Amino acid sequence: MLIIVAGKGLRIWKAPRTTYKVDAKNPGSDVAAETAAAFAAASIAFRRVDTEYSNKLLRSARRIFDFADQYRGKYSDSLAAAVCPFYCSYSGFNDEILWGAAWLYKAPKMDRYLQFLTNNAKP
After folding, report:
1. CA distance 43 to 63
2. Residues pairing with 3 in the sheet
3. In the chain, fewer beta carbons within 10 Å around the N or the C end?
4. Within 13 A of 10's CA, how many CA atoms are on the CB side?
5. How far apart are the C-alpha atoms of 94 and 23, rounded to whole Å?
């Protein structure tokens, strides 16, 4: 499960903000894979200054990526009333899945993610 914040109130960014979740019943591969990519990138940034935090980010990125891959679907399909039309995904989630895999490959240089990219990228 991943908790997200989305909504139509883009002019005011203050509490309270409605939160939503993506989970096995309400997939959100696009938002989850983007989150995994961000965590993996942050783990690189923190690697030399805070190894413990960097490793925590990387572990979280892997778990979130696995969730995104296992429960595939667009979060705008799961949460259409809350996120569309502003945050609707019109192109699907494949680009975000590949983006997440690319950052996870770059962060720890694990062949698993390079293999994922090779198997799932379409020219």
Report:
1. 14
2. 21
3. C
4. 7
5. 18
In a structure prediction context, what are the per-residue pLDDT tens digits for the chain, which is 123 residues long? 776 666 555 566 666 677 778 899 989 999 999 999 999 999 999 999 999 999 999 999 999 999 999 999 987 777 767 766 666 666 778 899 999 999 999 998 889 999 999 999 987
d(CA 35, CA 41): 10
Q: What angle do CA 48, 49, 52 make, to 5 degrees?
A: 90
Direct distance between the N- and C-terminal alpha carbons of the chain, in angstroms, rounded to an integer: 31
- Residue with token string 């923190």: 46
Task: Report yes or no: 35 and 2 within 8 Å, Cβ to Cβ.
Answer: yes
CA neighbours closer than 13 Å in the CB half-sphere of residue 103: 26
Q: How many residues does the chain have?
A: 123
